[in-house]
From TrEMBL:
InterPro entries: DUF1059. It comes from Fibrella rubiginis. It comes from the Bacteria. This is DUF1059 domain-containing protein.
Amino acid sequence: MKTLKCRDAGFDCDAQIHAETDEEVLAQAAQHASTVHGVTVTPELAGSLRPLIREAV
């Protein structure tokens, strides 16, 4: 399981995205960023988020 913390991406937000693959995490993160933060995730932004994805423990 992979995880991405919104706070690690620079937002003052406690949301965490959990999914099986990096691509699923990025898709869910893009949806969250759009609906909650009003941010459109560009390919460049997705590229900067990818290193923040961790294996869930």
